[in-house]
Amino acid sequence: MSEPQRIALLGPRGAGKSTLGERLASLLLVPWVDLDREIEAAEGQSCAELLRAHGEAWFRERELESLERVSARGAQVLATGGGVVTNERARQLLRERYRCFALLASPACLAERLRAQGGAATRPGLTQADPAAEVEELLRARLPHYLALAESVWSSERTSVDELARSLALCVRGAHGREPVAKGQPRLKLELEPTAERAVKGGHPWVFRDKVKRLNRVGATGELGIVFDRSKRFVAAGLYDASSPIALRVLQVGSPRPIDAGFFAERLAASVAERSGLFDPAETDGLRLVHGESDGLSGLVLDRYGEHLVLKIYSGVWFPWLAMLRDLIGEALHPRTLLLRTSRNVEVPAGAPRDGEALCGSVPEAPVEFREHGLRFEADLVRGQKTGFFLDQRENRSRVGALARGRAVLNLFAHAGGFSVHAAAGGAQSCLDVDQSEHALAAARRNFERNRERAEVRAARHETRRADVFAWLREPALPSFDLVIVDPPTLAQRASEKEGALRAYERLNQSALQRLRPGGILVAASCTAHVPADEFFALLRNVVRRAARPARELWTSRHPADHPARIREAHYLKCIAFELSGR
Fold first, then answer.
1. Domain spans of the chain, in order of start
2. CATH number of 261-368
3. How far is it, in rounded angstroms, from Cα 410 to Cα 395?
4. Radius of gyration of the chain (CA)
């Protein structure tokens, strides 16, 4: 016979455990048990009277006796007292006989609720502090126990009881939002090397595996891991990865708070709000809404292409949370399609959605259309690189368009022709796209056709050439151009490849300069994270200087506003432009 389903709600007084427990029990069709009421029934007095008369130590013994009795019963939802976790035997019973969930709220919220409920009249203080200070002191002391016992943590602060009960019922039934933690497992706890702990406290979102000093048990990918310092104080919480060199992707630092649907809804709303007003939706509806680490959601990006959204994950930690994310994104943004893309190095668990599957809506049968500064482009959400298009180069494409009037343009590593379409719309005479992918060049030709209603685009001659750019530039008797764009894919996947990447950038741009007429413009870009912007700019300035062709630097650029870079490792994109004299 299977073990009966026993659910225990943990958390401080004022968190709402009793109210939530009663609603949850009705949804799960099991009895509701309130531990404080069990004590009162056994002793014939209220908990407040018992504490006043006998003190806390005596009360904890009676609390343990009541817990031993009720834990021997069958299926139930148990609302515990806030201090039950201070008793070691009680913690053992909860760990062995219950699936535990923590219900939390901020100290200010808890103090206000307790005042509204009558304060010391219903429960005397356990310390000599004022009520607000006592709440904060007790929460700080008991929080490690709540986190160690709980499968997941839920906030009662901004969510209605009915909504919270429905979400928790789904979690209990395994429908969604549940971490991959076996019943009875203590919360995963990490202790870090001092350098890593300082980095996390300073805001770095990654904990590398070789910096984890101690784990209390084997962790599962996607479960919540809590970082404590040597004094057992909370440092951070994040999602654990059992196989990646990045062992923990940090979500919350400093002050503990529940990592639940409310947490992720807040992060999503903040990211979307940050992009609000950046673009006129009638002119630009292709943009990044969530940019991973820089938006506090490490390893996760969300891009918009018109009415379609693409969620891309760069770490397997997100698979257990996909259903919850799907629901949150659907409720907030109402996409026609939400498509999943996964990084090539992410292992997809059995039964999980795979790369290119629709999380909501249906997979588009053809590339979808979006707008960029009034121009129309297609994005192949299923086969395209990144999430379907290189949205991060939007502003650089616009800058090229402003420089292109009357010029013959060479677009190297052209991909889907974004730079060329902007150049044509800006009045370029001709555009030649060179790329080794016929699939990409076919998209470039279609993107030109999408914009032929513009007189400038109709007037521009457009050609494509399928070739390896490095080899093509060595061909004899190549024509010359007035504007050359050099925008290769990343040239170094790891730090050890950096020097080779720098040499490749040097060769490419030296060859590009040789193709420029007097007065021509060179636009050189890099998306290689292992090559810092300052080094890339210095290299290009040296290339131009050694070419012995007088030139002036027009501009440098880095990340656009919808791709913020708030940690060092997020700085990958840089671009620089030069104009030769003599036109």
1. 6-173, 188-253, 261-368, 390-580
2. 3.30.750.80
3. 18
4. 30
